[in-house]
Amino acid sequence: MTLDGVSSSLRNLLEMKYLEKYGGLDGFSFRVFTTEDFKPKTVNHVSLFLYRIDVDASRRHYEYSPTEDTAASVALGLHLHYILTVWSGNAIGEHLMLSRCIEILDEFAIISGSLLAENAIWRDTDAIRICMESMTNEDILRLWDSFEPAYHLSIPYLIRPVRLTAIEKHETPYVETYTNIYVPGASI
């Protein structure tokens, strides 16, 4: 699993399910944004912006058992934090598009199998969970302070568990440790 694979999966899911459900994109395009994409005159976009990455505190490493084709491996577990933003020329259009995107992400809260982007390497058991995240007004405004346009209505999402591409697990030998204490005048 890779970060770009997760971002592509989210973007593809929104675009594909929106087309299926509403028969068109209503003039919008779905994009994964970088900080350089935030511009004051941005319109007709639904953006996903990865603003933070955390190590999965409950399960830092995911271990995979060996199979016929692969050795035992271990992958780093991450949590990805995105904001979903709709950019439009009018508030009603933004609210409608945002509500439809929220419905899609709620309906498909677990992405696996054919819904995962084809441009990444996935294991058969890989799945990502999408959940709306709670952010204080102060935190979201602080995040928007770092962008050129002023605050824009956004919905924070947490994507987990994201496991980076597994690396071969090497058995490490046990290490014996001894502590010697020196006591003056004591005989051994």
Structural commentary:
With 188 residues, the chain is α+β, with helices and mostly antiparallel strands. The chain has one domain (3-168). 24% of the residues lie in helices and 30% in strands. The protein is built from 3 helices and 8 strands; from the N terminus they run αββββαββαββ. It has helices spanning 3-22, 91-107, 137-145; strands spanning 29-33, 45-55, 61-64, 73-87, 110-112, 127-132, 154-163, 167-168. Strands 1, 2, 3, 4, 5, 6, 7 and 8 form an 8-stranded mixed sheet that branches. Strand 3 (61-64) and strand 4 form a beta hairpin. It is elongated and about 85 Å long. It starts with a helix and ends in a 20-residue tail after the last strand. The model has no long low-confidence stretch (mean pLDDT 83).
The major sheet is characterized as:
8 strands, mixed
Topology, number of strands: 8
- SS-derived structural category: alpha+beta
What amount of the residues lies in strands? Answer: 25-35%
Assembly annotation: single chain
Mean pLDDT: 83
N-end to C-end Cα span: 58 Å
Q: Helix amount, in percent?
A: 10-25%
Total domain count:
1
Q: How would you spell out the order of helices and strands?
A: HEEEEHEEHEE
Query: Over all CA atoms, what is the radius of gyration?
Result: 23 Å
Question: Care to give the gist of this entry?
Answer:
With 188 residues, this protein is an alpha+beta fold. It has helices at 3-22, 91-107, 137-145; strands spanning 29-33, 45-55, 61-64, 73-87, 110-112, 127-132, 154-163, 167-168. The relative contact order is 0.22.
